[in-house]
Amino acid sequence: METTPLNTSLPGVRLLQLWIRKKIPVSLSLINTELLDGEILWQDSEFIALQPSNQRGPVLINRQQISTIRPLR
Known about the structure:
The protein has 1 helix and 5 strands; from the N terminus they run H-E-E-E-E-E. A 5-stranded antiparallel beta sheet has the order 4-3-2-1-5. The mean pLDDT is 94. The chain is α+β, with helices and mostly antiparallel strands. Strand 1 (25-30) and strand 2 (35-43) form a beta hairpin.
């Protein structure tokens, strides 16, 4: 399976990178209606690593499962 590189010229990718650098907490809505809150640690072309505020380790979320990402502050 071949993956495409992360296109850092896209405004959405740049905005997520800004939130990562500034450690802005976010709320992710998944297509199954689950909500996850936490801090994005990193992103690549397939996954976003989210550190939930109520868990020890990060959670990898497939980008195709995300419907909305909102900053919490």
